[in-house]
Specification:
Number of helices: 1
Largest sheet: 5 strands, antiparallel
Structural class: alpha+beta
Radius of gyration: 17 Å
Strand order of the largest sheet: 3-2-1-4-5
Distance between the termini: 36 Å
Shape: elongated
Strand content: 35-45%
Length: about 90
């Protein structure tokens, strides 16, 4: 399964046709080569394997990001529980 992660455009480099994106607090550069619509600073876009795939509505992006954060917290909690269980076995 492939995921496209909602990300906020924080800068655009027209010379290299790339955008700097913020994805859950992590900044990364992504290619705009697959986009046929205009992207502006502040837009939310879908990031997939280093490419901006399309724009996404800000409200939908924020809802998706909240869901990703919940998943990350659940995974981190499960990892803590497993580590604690492993310590108790030792």
């Amino acid at each position: 399964m492939c995921l496209a992660i909602p990300s906020k455009v924080i800068s655009i480099d027209k010379a290299t046709n790339t955008a700097m994106l913020d994805t859950l607090g992590v900044q990364r550069e992504a290619s705009l080569d697959l986009m046929n619509e205009e992207i502006n600073i502040g837009d939310y876009v879908l990031l997939h394997i280093g490419y901006v795939m399309g724009k996404i509505d800000e409200e939908q992006a924020k809802l998706s990001l909240e869901t990703y954060e919940e998943i990350i917290k659940a995974i981190e909690e499960e990892e803590r529980e497993l580590q604690e269980a492993n310590k108790n076995l030792s």
